[in-house]
Specification:
Oligomer: single chain
Helix content: 25-40%
Number of strands: 8
Radius of gyration: 18 Å
Order of helices and strands: HEEEEHEHEHEEHH
Strand order of the largest sheet: 4-3-2-1-5-8-7-6
Structural class: alpha+beta
């Protein structure tokens, strides 16, 4: 496969691959995926580094980097890219995202089978752009699934995939991963609340979400 032509380019890809592998391993450690399910990618210029198909993350090393261009042509590495490559590439074509995380998180996957949209159970809903939609089911790895995901992600940074899992993106691997963790947590909260006999969870209004969004825009250190 073609290799980067400059030392700087090679170094940037090596750093990004190391961070990608660490994030992929974290999805397993935190219980968001089982085995080799789920996948992670990061964009470096016009190259998209992706986890390979069917390889345990703890076995990945510096020489196992897999990269494709935005058209999906493999330009780095010998391992086969993740089967969910169409979804990852769709995100990069549609957004300014620098990283994408896809998981089979338990509570999020459960919610994806129950509703067309995660009810606004918590103000962190707004941190994902608004109520999280569920993309209709389609065969994994298919262009149909990628198209369903694109629609569900419109004006959002996260979506659920029906009977499948989660998809989030961000300006960095850390941001994309944090959004996945927040989504899984909100799904867990909603499932716990709706399981109480004789009670329905209180939900946030559009105005409450808007106010939260304004406050969240100034959250943290600047």
């Amino acid at each position: 496969m073609e290799r980067p032509h400059t030392h700087e380019g090679a170094a940037a890809l090596a750093r990004a691959w190391s961070a990608l592998v660490a994030t992929a391993r974290r999805t397993v450690t935190d219980g968001l995926v089982v085995g080799t399910s789920g996948n992670v990618s990061v964009r470096v210029g016009d190259t998209v580094l992706v986890t390979p198909s069917g390889v345990p993350y703890d076995r990945l090393g510096p020489d196992d980097a897999v990269g494709v261009d935005l058209a999906g042509r493999q330009i780095l590495g010998g391992l086969k890219p993740t089967s969910e490559l169409p979804m990852h590439l769709a995100v990069y074509r549609d957004t300014r995202a620098a990283a994408v995380v896809h998981t089979h998180a338990v509570h999020a996957t459960a919610v994806s089978t129950l509703v067309p949209e995660l009810p606004p159970i918590h103000y962190m809903t707004q941190a994902l752009g608004g109520p999280v939609r569920v993309a209709p089911y389609a065969l994994y790895g298919s262009e149909e699934l990628a198209e369903n995901m694109r629609e569900a992600l419109r004006d959002r940074t996260a979506c659920l995939l029906q009977n499948h899992g989660t998809m989030t993106h961000g300006a960095s691997l850390d941001e994309a991963y944090d959004r996945t963790a927040q989504l899984e947590w909100m799904c867990r909260v909603w499932l716990a609340a709706r399981s109480a006999p004789g009670h329905e969870p209180s939900l946030l209004s559009d105005e409450q979400l808007r106010e939260a969004g304004e406050k969240l825009s100034g959250y943290g250190q600047r």
